[in-house]
Structures are given as structure tokens and as C-alpha cells.
Design brief:
The complex is a heterodimer of chains A (201) and B (647). Chain A has 7 helices and 7 strands. In chain B, a hairpin with a 7-residue loop joins strand 19 and strand 20. In chain B, helix 7 runs parallel beside helix 11 and helix 8 runs antiparallel to helix 9. Classes of the chains: A alpha+beta (201), B alpha/beta (647). At the A-B interface, strand 4 and helix 2 of A face helix 18, helix 19 and helix 20 of B. The complex binds flavin mononucleotide, iron/sulfur cluster (2 copies) and FE2/S2 (inorganic) cluster (2 copies).
Chain lengths: 201, 647
Amino acid sequence: MIEFKINDQPVEAQAGWTVLDTARQYGIHIPTLCHHEAVEPSGNCRLCVVELRDGDWSKVVISCMYPVQDGLQVYTDSDRVKNVRRWILEMLLSECPASSEIQRLAQEYGVEQTRFAIHDPEEDCILCGLCVRTCKEVVGVSAISMVGRGVHKVIGTPYMMPSDACVACGSCVTVCPTGAMRRRLDLVRGEPKTRMAHSAV
Amino acid sequence: MAETNVAQSFTERRLGSAADLKLYQEELLAQKDPQQAEVIVCYGTGCLAAGAEQVEAALKEALDQAGLDTKVRPLIKTTGCRGFCSRGPLVVIQPEGLFYQKVKASDAEEIVQTTLVEGQPVERLLYQDPQSGEPIPREQDIPFYKKQHRLVLGRIGSVDPTDIRESIAAGAYQALAKVLTGMSPEDVVSEVEKSGLRGRGGAGFPTGRKWRGALKAIEKKGRPVYVVCNGDEGDPGAFMDCMIMEGDPHAVLEGMIIAAYALGSEQGYIYVRHEYPVAIKHLDLAMEQARSLGLLGDNILGSDFCFDLRINRGAGAFVCGESTALFTSIEGLAGEPRPKYVRSVEEGLWGRPTVLNNVESWANVPLIINNGADWFAGIGVPHSTGTKVFSLVGKVNNVGLVEVPMGTSLVEIIEEIGGGVPGGEPFKAVQTGGPSGGCIPYSLKDVPVDYDSLSKVGSMMGSGGMIVMDERDCVVDVARYFLRFLEEESCGKCIPCRLGLTRLREMLDDFSKGKGTEKDVEEIESLGEAIKDGSLCALGGSAPNPVLTTLQYFRDEYLAHINERRCPAGICKELISYQIDQEACTGCRTCARLCPQEAISGEKKKPHTIDQDKCIQCGICLESCNFGAVQVISPALVSQKSQEAAS
Ligand SMILES: Cc1cc2nc3c(=O)[nH]c(=O)nc-3n(C[C@H](O)[C@H](O)[C@H](O)COP(=O)(O)O)c2cc1C
Ligand code: SF4
Ligand code: SF4
Ligand code: FES
Ligand code: FES
């Protein structure tokens, strides 16, 4: 048994657990977007951040990957943590304005509106990569992947062509936290073909 | 450099023991006549760009023409970068140490005739003391070199890096011999620990502690263990690692072989960005020659110890220099960082224990072994021992590479070694630590350059970039420049970095146009903190530093942009206008001819004027005017003036 504290409350965890696993065990809420039990964590949405403290020392880490250790002092809602979440959500509001999940989370963290310009009012993909990881690790076919790099990244198939590898299982649609994959599945399966041009961009 | 394959000339030789290496070194030294003249042509990147190849060819020809007796015929040798790149092409004549700068092919005959035949210096090619104007004949007396302490760079500039015999004669691989004959792996690790060496690639992690961590991980997980060299060097304006790999590849190899011995590693990797073809070529040659002599590969120096190295070419992405991204890239995947709460000494390349060190860190290892940990710890300051190589660029007279003991102050490096800002005014600020380092103002000029002092003032050592700025550099513009670079280089994996850097840069773009409020300054700081705290790897984790430090030290300049719509440095286009001083203008028409907008008019020999409606603020007139007549003023003043004129 590993003993530590979350928000000053003593908790116990098993070796190999993450801070998020432990918090969930105790019903302590930490928001997540890119985490799913079925696939390897990738740690890219950063919404699940928590603060570790030890005297004057303090550090922000992601709870979905941070391994539990004896004596940790974890804070799930400190000012530093809230600052990270608020900015992520405000930026996601402008990036994926069509996602109701993002709107809900934003409200939960007191972000009413976004100051940032909206490029595409239809956009709802947050590029968390859950669909990609599910397709690869659970379904085992890797029909979809992240295409492009940096700010130009999108979810797609190789060369943005319909993929023969896709078995149309719909797992990606199920795991997608924002509902974005529903609209993209047609592109992956390639039917009806006419929709491709619209959704590929 | 020497185009013949040097490896061929000693393939029959294999060094069977440490004693054999010593013997070989003595043989090589005995073959040399210390009185024989050597003409050393710098073949570093800067000098090559300035025409070193032509200079070398002309020197060869001039020597042939002079028909000197073959016995006293001077050797022509090419070496890696000597550091004083802004004075290139450089030619040094040994054994006198005569230092010729800005040499042209047309100078070759005179150098041969006057110096090599008659034994006199060519005065006009000598470096002149900027204060007294007196020529300084010898390299070691030039202020740029005098204050330096060249240890890591010690062999660079005196050996031809494509011929291992030169390096061996100068002492290469003696530390390896010492380790193999008299030190246990434990001895090696504790020696490096005791030396206090910290990583030269960024974070400054104690190298000995890293190796110790790897030994512990091996106890748990067993071998294989890998040693890896980080030669990705992606900072704009930084070229110290390139210079080491090109100029003294054996120092890097020797450091890695020693670590491999200490850790029991059989395979190592050198990750070099593909934009460094010469570094790759020299490393390749060095490895080939070391292998044929028995210094690398199977049964090194006749022992049981076997270790080999392979070069990996990086794709050139800045983020690939980050440790976990570098491993994924060597593994053949897209170079993206992985979140890590397990250290790479435990789980690095292919999930195995791995020691990753920077090029310069590796090159320090043989020095520590040869001279001892105490000697090394005696250089520099406590907690930052040894020397550090910096690449000094920007608004500084002596652009180049310098090596100084840790703890040397900023002002010593910039003013005494770097010769200060052109024009003589004090520097305004200096960016240390690369694009995600911090910007330190002149008022902190006495800060000693060591890991802890730099982070105390909000900056960092990074890999050793030093960009000097003067009053004509605008801090808002500088912060935007670095952010744009990092925004382009972000791998896009995590949200705070992928979205945050763009948003932060957009907020600064507004400032450069005079848009924004004091509240926005606070918002910029708050977003900056969120990106630092939230990002997955240190690219995002340090990207806001230039913004945050310039805000800390130059807040007034930011506020001038939004409150007064004024750019004090005269850089932000939307906040400046150019105007011609009617008294100073001689009507020479230079600016009028060069203006791409044809915005400047006036009769010859009469004062000219700029049509503000046509002007696009390109600044060409300002740069071209020989009489200082073009002025930068805030647009508000222009409209005021035109009103005055109208009334
Ligand atoms: C975005 C990013 C880029 C980096 N680039 C380099 C690099 O080009 N060269 C380097 O040696 N270290 C680089 N580092 C630091 C490495 O991650 C690592 O700390 C270093 O290579 C370890 O070697 P050292 O301990 O000898 O410094 C970079 C880090 C980050 C976050
Ligand atoms: S489609 Fe959904 S699951 Fe896939 S990356 Fe976008 S938001 Fe994540
Ligand atoms: S901080 Fe930037 S570079 Fe690092 S993982 Fe995140 S997106 Fe990639
Ligand atoms: S849930 Fe932890 S980083 Fe996304
Ligand atoms: S390239 Fe010749 S001194 Fe740097």
C-alpha cells in the first residue's frame, strides 16, 4: 500500500496506480479529455493537471500518468492548476466551438467566453488522439493517424484517402470525447465519397 | 580537409594495448619538426563561407611558385573553427603564432614571400587593437582570446580533425588508456561525480549523478544499456556543438567510449542534425580511423571491452533535441516527446537504461579523467565547475565562439571578449539560453554566468547561446521573434504548447501594433504561466521565458507601445514613421534611389521629404543615409507636424 494525500485528505493506493486512478477511487473529481482506461495514456490534453507540493517546492504534473509515491501531497484545484485548466478551456472554446463537451467543461471552470478568434465554427476535434490510439491498440488496424505536425496537425488517413484498413467498427466514435469522430468516420471509410472533400479540410 | 583517405595509411597498425598507444604518440611526435613552419587555414563554417577554400588554394599555389626547398617547405593544414569567425578567413602561421585575419586569395603571395621566405609579418593582415589601433601579431595576445580558457576547444584550431594521428599526437585517447589500465567502472563514475560536471545541453543535470542512476537501473533491469550523444543543436545562432563535432570529433568519441566502459555498454548512438554534413563526415571519418587503430569496436586497446558507435541523422526539428523525442526519432518513429515521470536512465532508448549527454558534456569527460576531478572542480565556481562554450552573436563586435570558466560575468564576456556593441554604447540586454531562455538587462551585467545565477534572474544556461541586443532592438519584437520560432517548432502534441504559443504570439502582435491594455499585460503573464505549467515537454515549458523576462525587466517599453503608441527602439512598423531632417539632408538622392515605394522626393542637393502615405516603413532609407538625416519618430509626431505646417 502506498499512502499519500490528495487535497490534504489521506489516501491509499496500490503500486502501479496513477494519481488519477487514486483520485477516482476516492471520488475526487479531476477533469480529463485524452484519458481512457482502454488505451495507453498519451498525456496531451493536460486538463488533468494537479499540483504537487513539498514545503516551498511545487510542481504541476498530469495526474493521468503520474505514478503514486509514498508521501506525495497532491492538490487538484489549486490556483496554478485552475490557471492551466482555464486557459486550455478558453483556447479550446475558440478551437472547437462546436463541441458541447468543451462548452460544458468551460462553464464548469468559469470560462464563459473566449477572447480568441474562431477559425472554424464547425470544428469539434481537440486532437486528443484517443481515436487513433483506440484504432491502433484496441482494434489493431491503425486506419487513422495524426497527419501533419505542430499547428497543422489533423486526424486523418494516409494521404487523406479513404482507408481499406478501416473495419467500420465505430470504436473511434465511441471513445471520442467531443463527438468529432462521428463526422469524420465517413472520410475514413470512404463512403459516400462525395463527402470527403468537405470533411478532409 | 585532406582528401586522401588517411585511414589507409595505417590500416596495418592496430594498437594492442595502452602502452602501444603511448608509443604511437611518441612516434608521431618524433616525426614532427617543431621548427617546421605550419600554415593553418581555418576551415570552420564561417571562414569557409568567407572564402577559406580559395585562400588555401592560393597559398598552395604561392608556395609552389616560391619553389622553397622541400625540406623546409611549410605544411599547409586546415582545422576546425578558431572561434573568431567575424574576422575570417583566418590564417595562422606556426610556430610563431602569427594571426592573419580577413585574408583574401590575393594576399597569398605576400604571405609566402614576406612571412615564410623573409620571416616578417604582413602588417596589414594583423589584428588591430580597437582602442590603440596598434597591430597585435600573435593570436594569444588578442583580447578576444586572452580572456578565454580554451580546454574543451583546446585541440580545435591546431589539429586537422580528419587525421586521427594529429589528435593522437596531441593527446587524444590517453584518458581512455588510463581508464582501461587503472580505473574500475566505479572509479570512473565517482571521478565524474566528484568533478561536478553538469550537462551542457540544457538542463544542467549533474552528469555523474546521471551515470550513477544508470548503474542503479542496470542493477534492476540488467543490460543492454545505451550511451547517446545529443548533437541536435537546434537553437538559432548556436554553433558550439557543431564546432566541436567538426573540429575535434575524437574528444566526443573518447568521452562516450569512457562512459561505455563505466556502464558496460556495447552500443552507442550519435544523433546529429542533418544540416551538419561536415560534422557527420568528420565523425564518420573519426570513427573509421579509431576502429582501424583498435580504439573503437571489438577489443578496444587489446582489452575485453567492446563498444561501437553509430550516427543517426536528425530530421532537423528543434524538438528532436528533447531527450524523449530524440529516442523516438532514433527508434524510427516521429520525433515527438513522451511524457516522462520515469527518468531516461531507467527507461530511455527502446525502453532500456540510457545515458544521454550533450556533445560538449561528452568532450569534457576525457579532460576530467586526464587531469582529475579536483583539477576540474577547481575551475569555475562551486556548483558550476569547468568551462562553458558560448556562441556570442547579435550586436557585438567579436561574433564567434568563446570558452570561459563558469562564473565569468556577462559584462566580461560581452565587452572584454566580445569587444562590446558596435558604436560603443552599452548593450541593452542579452538573451541567454537559446530561444526559450531569458533576456537579461544591462543593469544585471555583473551577473556571473553559471547555472544557478542565471536561473535566479529568470534566464538559464541552456546550451550556451548568447544574443546581444542594443538600443535598436525592441523587446516586444524580440519576444515575438522567439515565440514565432518555437510556435513553428512545436510538435503539436500537447494543447498548451500547440494552441498557447500561437495565442501568446497573437497577443504580442497586437502590442506591436499599439493595441492592448495594461490588463492584457497581466493576461499575457497568466497565459505564459499556464503554458509553462501545463506543457508536456520543456519546449512549451520554457517557451514563455523570453516574454516573461522582457516583461519583468522592460515593462515600460511594453507599456509605451500600448499607452503612447510608441516603439522606443523604433522597430515596430505600425508605431514608427521616418522623416528626413531638413538641416542634415544634403540632397544626395541615395535614399530616393533605393526606396522601393518611390516615396522620397526632392531636387538634387536640396533637402528631401518622405511621402507618409507611400512609405511602408521598410527602413532602407535609414540604413542608406550617409549623413544620419533619416530619423525615426512616432507617427503621432508626424501628424502633429503636418498640422503645424498647415496652420
Ligand atoms: C525542445 C528541446 C530541445 C533540446 N535540444 C537539445 C539539443 O539540441 N542538444 C542538447 O544537447 N540538448 C538539447 N535539449 C536537452 C536534452 O533534452 C537533454 O537534457 C540533454 O541532451 C542532456 O544532456 P546533458 O545532460 O549532457 O546536457 C533539448 C531540450 C528540449 C526540451
Ligand atoms: S476525433 Fe475525437 S478522439 Fe479523435 S482526436 Fe479528435 S477529439 Fe480526440
Ligand atoms: S510542449 Fe510543445 S513540443 Fe513539447 S510535447 Fe507539447 S506540443 Fe510538443
Ligand atoms: S487526461 Fe491527462 S493529459 Fe489528458
Ligand atoms: S570559422 Fe574560422 S574562426 Fe570560426
